[in-house]
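Backbones bend. We report:
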Amino acid sequence: MNYSVKNYVGDRPYDSYDEYLGDLKMYVVILLRDYIVRTYGGAPKRMGQKGAVLPEYGEVVAMLHYELAKKGIDEDQEASDWYRGLLSRRELSQIFGQGFPVDGIRERMELGEFGDIVIPLALLGTLSRGFERVFCFLERDTGAKHPTLELCARLYYREEASELQIDRLVHEHAPKLQLLFPELAEAEKLVFGRLVCDERLTDLIFGKTRYYTRGVTVREAGGAMDPLYHREEELKKLLRFDKEGEMPVFVLCGERGSGKKHLVRHYAKSYPKAHSKGREDPWGGFQADQERKQGVIYFDVKGFYGSGPADMDMVITALRFAGREAFIRSCPLAVTGVEVMAREELEQMVSFIEANLKDVIRSVFLLMDGEGYTSGLEGLYIVLLRALTELERIELWRYYTRDCGLEEGINLEEVANTFLITPGQILGAIRQASLLSEGGAPLQEKTLYQACYAQLDHKLAAKSRKVNSDFLWEDLKLPDSDKSVLRDLCNCIKNKHIVMNEWNFSKVIPYGAGITVLFSGPPGTGKTMAAQVIANELKMELYKIDLSQVIDKYVGETEKNIRHIFDQARKSNSILFFDEADAIFNKRLEASNSNDRFANIESSLLLQCVEEYSGISILATNNFNAIDAAFIRRFKYYILFREPGEDIRYEIWKSVFPKEAPLSEDVDLRILAKQFQFTGAVIKNVVISSAYLAAEKGEAISLVDILVSIKREMFKNNLILTKEKLGSLGYLFEDIK
């Protein structure tokens, strides 16, 4: 119906919200007075429970008359006349664009005229101690300080109503009433449930925006949102259900920062378009309500979990309050932190949502980090937010750094290939790097990489050891041919996005696009240092795994350890360096017993995980001949680390002495390189040992100090340094005895 001012000659809109609330209060006061006079007129004093004295009839009626007199209302005021006047002024106020929060709640709950009784009456029971005595009188119970739904129904009918009428009215509005007053769920019989205006509902009625519900966060609308990069298809799937009418409970699964909340916000932004009725609303303007509808109500269940399981009764109660917030504001409800719940707890929560929230809220989301365990639960629509491709990560890096100054030389393609992180982690890294940059200076490469590492969330350290990677190419003393292979290996990672994406080789190699490397050679020949150089070049973290520690005597534990390592590595794209690979990659055995069969299974599983890993896996062995040839063919790169020749040894001797170390003039490093066929590790040990000998004497490092250290190093390996082995340095043999 269209209204105009001329329909209300002699009427006027409400001057304020307080005036309107006052008229609503007087309406229920008149109804209460009429009901009490009609039902209990002349009744004697009654006794309450355990002999407690209840308010008397005269006291209650006098209090109600006093409330009316304060507003100048006659004692014989008819409720129907008062209500007609209230409706006239309310409709006129709406014509002039004046909306009231209490009407917004009533209309959202679709309570109609019944709501004009239920909400004000519940508010009276909460805010007025005087009215508590009225309800005690009506219920014949000194503890009954809030009105019941039965009382509201009797006031609604005004005249005598049958039990069937009352029950039918209450159950007609039951779903919405239980949402508005969550405590009703605890009533043994709904019609006798008490209406309690909790603090949040009271604030909603008075138009305040404060939040008290445990676990609830309200993400208000307003402000520009980042585009929904590479999640458009997922949004279309969600909106398709919205158009078709049947709405399941949506489950969004993905790694932390994969964009689950961002997707829900974009869905919420589209949500009002499908549900707008195009009418003036009671909240204070149609557009204001549409803006409000674009928000999201988040309910985090993690806060209910301490050291043990959560109290599910508390979770469900809090979820009722969160559901009310979502319904009143016409927002989607997103439950976060679901991954911490046991399957039985999740089933209980889903059952509650299906029975109490889904039909009234319409859009309910469960947000779960990881792939979860929701399969088999009915009524759920699972959307898995896949990991981004290299090209998609590059696009996001470019978008989020569009307003940031970048230090010259930063290659965002390399950053995107180095860190396989989620959109949220990309944004977090950029924000952290910006905070670390002094005075708004351009983002530095080192700072950006530090911020990226801070975003990584993995537990590799539980089964491995992080290795510092400070060595450079010039520190690695290898033949040029071997260094060339290592450089090619690094270039594979740097140019992976070009080969796999721009040139579309990902179609040819749908899986196993990582880099698998086998290092073999005697101890101390540079295998670990080579891995450190690679990590430094690619600015990646290096984790060293001792396979002898991964192998477990208990059946299945070795496989569990291997899977744990690679599951955690995928979160960080770290370089995995497996030392002592021959401990598991030995020649396959004839399965003559169960131990042999399990050993073969373990080696096959490790090889499978290595091949499927998208990063770099380096396996090192001191005993190449012990590894099965079939395994060796599966590696993309193989480097044999030989004991260094004289020229390489000379380079190692020179590089191990820091320029700050005082070296005696009698030390000829060329002679040492020629005379002693040591590996790099042995040379390093000798130099450090000789440095301590010299430091104790307060002198420069002398040739004798070095020879003493050589003698001791050889003795550790069951070798004796004789005068003949000293060669041209034999004249110092007596000095080193």
User: Anything to note?
Assistant: The chain has a mean pLDDT of 85. The CA atoms of residues 607 and 631 lie 8 Å apart.
